[in-house]
Amino acid sequence: MLEMQNEDKVYGNIAYACTTLQCERGLGNKTAMRWIDAHGGKTDFTFNDLDRESNRFANALDSLGVTKGDIFFTFLPKTPEQFFAFLGILKAQVICGTLFSNFGEEALLDRLGDSGAAGIVTRKGLFKKIMRIRGKLPKLKYIILIDGDGEPERGVFGYKDLTAAARDEYEVQPTTADTPSVLQYTSGSTGKPKGVLHCHGSLQGQMGTARDVLGLRHDDIYWCTADQGWITGTSYGIIGPWSLGITQIHYGGGFDAQAWVDLLAREHVTVWYSAPTALRMLMRSDETIFTSADLSELRSIHSVGEPLNPEVIAWSRRVMNRDIYDTWFQTETGAIMICNRPGMEIFPGSMGKPATGIEPAIVADDGTILKDGEQGNLCIKIGWPSMFSTYLNNESAYASKFKNGYYYTGDTARRDANGYYWFMGRSDDVINTAGHLISPFEIESALLEIDEIAESGVIGAPDELLYEKVVAFVHLHEGVVPTKDLELKIRLHVSNKASSIATPQEIIFCDGIPKNKSGKIMRRVLRARYSGADIGDTSTLEI
Ligand code: ATP
Ligand code: MG
Q1: Would you tell me which CATH number, out of the four given (3.40.50.150, 1.10.10.10, 2.60.40.3090, 3.30.300.30), belongs to the domain 431-531?
Q2: pTM > 0.85: yes or no
């Protein structure tokens, strides 16, 4: 094979591609990020700004003695420094881990300890959490505070001082496709978090899908609501769009239906990437918020992270006169694998078709490749560009995910005769009742259509006769009283909408459905609650 030119290797660096390369393309003065703080204050950063700020951070790391292959985390809510640090870390070929800023001490200790992190960029308000566990983290040498002063003798450094002293030019060293880049711990809804390690070569997958699936064009104003602690926040809130020279909105405020819709309208957002939980919350708010807003420039809405209920698409069609394009991927896949996209016919409830170059298969437990209509393990043929390179310190878990040239995603799905994929559940979530396989998601979607129900979570519970029975946890809207009549209504509706087999044998009214921080229903917790067992690791749980 021909030796790669040095130049190509530099271009292979994710952060170089997102900044310096855009400036070389003549986009230096284009807005890369419009930062909107929680109070609506705006600051624009050009690609030149992004390039210089990340260069400063890379130089600062060099001056501290952080070297290629070390691991450095960001532990911040959305804030401009988070983006500068992320890109600077990657420019220095240091591995960048991102942590959700709501993590508690246990969750932090798991991740910082497992990875042997050398440093962390954070803020004063989060500093206490780190100091309480620092004694258990002998490898953690550098804590950088974006809003505080340094105490170098304690290994604490002020971001402002460090970067003010650093040059704003940085020579990115040749970066090969297999150089480690981003580290993210999966959210742990099925077990202890695993450190998913990606490489700089993943850029190809993220850039390609940002262009071909999200359909990003040079004049777009794009808003991805995901937190940078999750893969969507880095693959599609940083890498994909900026490697295409796209202007991104980043918003530091929390969820608020009116504020979000105002932002979409006022900033002329053209492409919006969000998640079902947020969309369902919007669906529950006052419709006039949408009907009175001018969303004429919003070209497409995309969703990821959990199944997108058909009910939400129906709402979007009715209220916003637009489809929502569901996409499927995982921390491990690094980029979108299966998707709906503009121009494609949408079948609500289906996560769509493979992205370009992706070859999924539905595979039985014995390895047989299944036919259309049959349900089984969702697998992806190995070799896509953004494939993870390992689970950090857990080679055996990594190896166990691959068989016969396929990566086993841990999800179950089926493909219909038109080539569309339908998500059925996690391998361990699918309910087997009287030999029929049932997706809890399908039942939850049906339950959501009932006016009285705010949220639901469905599990299979052991049953002597049926093997498993369907148990529905139901959270009613405020003021609604659970009655026998309501139970009957629920059973009838599910029977009509899903199937008679899917009709819940038991309905448990409760005050809330446990979800992890990325909004996924934690059925593991519901199962434990049902059986009275210990609910295990709940470091990412939010009820
Ligand atoms: P862990 O693997 O530790 O339990 P996690 O799987 O929740 O964590 P992620 O990698 O962020 O962490 O989530 C990927 C999973 O999210 C997928 O495997 C799938 O179960 C679910 N998912 C993502 N997008 C979709 C979608 N469009 N439809 C249905 N499920 C989705
Ligand atoms: Mg997973």
Answers
A1: 3.30.300.30
A2: yes
